[in-house]
Task: structure prediction
Amino acid sequence: MTSISLGNSDTPLTSRAADFLAAGPADAQSLISYVCQLPGAPATVAEHMATALFAGHARFVRDRVGRWMLRDASAPADVDISRTLEQESFVVVDVETTGSRSMAGDRITEVAVVRVRDGRAEMMFETLVNPDRPIPPAVMALTNITWEMVRNAPRFADICDQLLGALEGSVFVAHNAGFDWRFISNEVARATRRPLVGQRLCTVRMARHFLPQLRRRNLDSLSDYYGIVNTARHRAGGDAMATAKVLVRFLREARSRECESLDDLQRLLRAPTSRKKKRRRRPPAMPHSVSDDRTA
Result:
């Protein structure tokens, strides 16, 4: 499972299963024997129990020989890959918020989703959101989103289903993806009491691999490099569309580096990047004033 979906909350049994599978893939009989304390369960019964236990939990998958395993970024090569990179659907997300602390009371004021598929970027969803709390003056100055604009906007719970419809079945992408993922997943969990699950891509991380020559990798720098015009900077729609156009360029570069699938791309992004050594600054060659005594 690579695409975004709603998962189930962990239970004591799924936690035990995760601990067991952390050591590597296992057949259903061994797994159920450990998790459910049922040694000797018939293979068909164990398979049914495992399937029911892991329903909705995207991190538990099966490999090509039928063993259960944890799905993560370092999945073995024998995991079944059903889609090529060209066939993947990506959703580029951007949120504007009341601040940077998703776990300390800050909330979303605007969200946008742009879908990227077959080299095309299409706006799927965009709305202001009532955060149910004041917007600090510094944030208003940056985003130009005022309380008057969001006062009558829908609350996140009101747009959650529509947003999930835009996200479902795709890979989550954002510039500094951890920030947007934390806000979206916290809001979704608050509205549905279920976690958001799925793979993520970060265009900042991709920039480190594909554009190592750039000194800065913020969205402005990447947009300037590719000649992308962002007419609504620091607004969810403008930033999401600009990031989506950057992603299109990165996916093109990934394919040129023989990335055939999302797993190939994730492996490439896990590889260490070459860092240029900082040059030591030499003293200026021009003579300095005799009054500038540097020997003391």
